[in-house]
Known about the structure:
Elements: E1 5-8, H1 19-27, E2 30-33, E3 37-41, H2 44-49, E4 59-62, H3 65-77, E5 87-90, H4 93-98, E6 109-112, H5 117-126, E7 131-137, H6 143-151, E8 154-165, E9 178-181, H7 184-193, E10 203-207, H8 209-217, E11 224-226, H9 234-245
Parallel strand pairs: 1-2, 1-9, 4-5, 4-7, 5-6, 7-8, 9-10, 10-11
Antiparallel strand pairs: 3-8
Helix pairs in contact: 1-9, 5-6, 7-8
Amino acid sequence: MKVKTILVSQPEPKIENSPYFELSEKQKVKIDFRPFIHVEGVSSKEIRQQKVDLNNYTAIILTSRNAVDHFFRVAEEMRFKVPDAMKYFCQSEAVAYYLQKYVVYRKRKIYVGKRNFVDLSPLIKKYKDEKFLLPTTDKLKPEVPEILNDLGVNWKEAVFYKTVISDLSDLENVTYDILVFFSPSGIESLFHNFPEFKQNDTKIAVFGNTTIKAVEQKGLRVDIAAPTPETPSMTMALQKYIDKNNKKK
């Protein structure tokens, strides 16, 4: 079966040269984007109920751009002036770069990991006398608290934002050749919106082992998986699959 339509369960990329746009143009396939989940901020009142006083912390651990946005949102709501001496520990360069939206980068103490949270742990350990706050989601990966506890640092986790299932009811009678998922939450949203979903001829593309596991637990078939050594990105995996299946016979 030739691939003509793809639904990616994420927001549409904001950059013009996204590999998805190149894939769509090159392969003449229609690619739609729709977030199956979205983020909603937790109120400052709810954060106070978590016994969080921003004055008590000297360092902030930031694992995503959402964490950056919601930390500064809450600080503003609480009328907390973030001190210049605050240290920021960012999981990746992308997160650190995004931090510039709120602080003057060269005037702040910013420490950057490579990509995964474990890469950030030596930097956190080096400053173990700090009081760390981890503003996070309600879907935090279990490895993060495990690593922080193993480091023996003074830290507190607080839910600043939640992952919420999006309303997809308008897609009820719409079909796609390929559905693309990046997290177990996306699969959860699929079945929340469409409890009777049957895969049939629809191909499912997934990114990451935890997402593969979530798909299989629902009794679905994984047709396209990334990352692999040959296809480290989702667009490369889709490209390979389309090349194989759209060949003229």
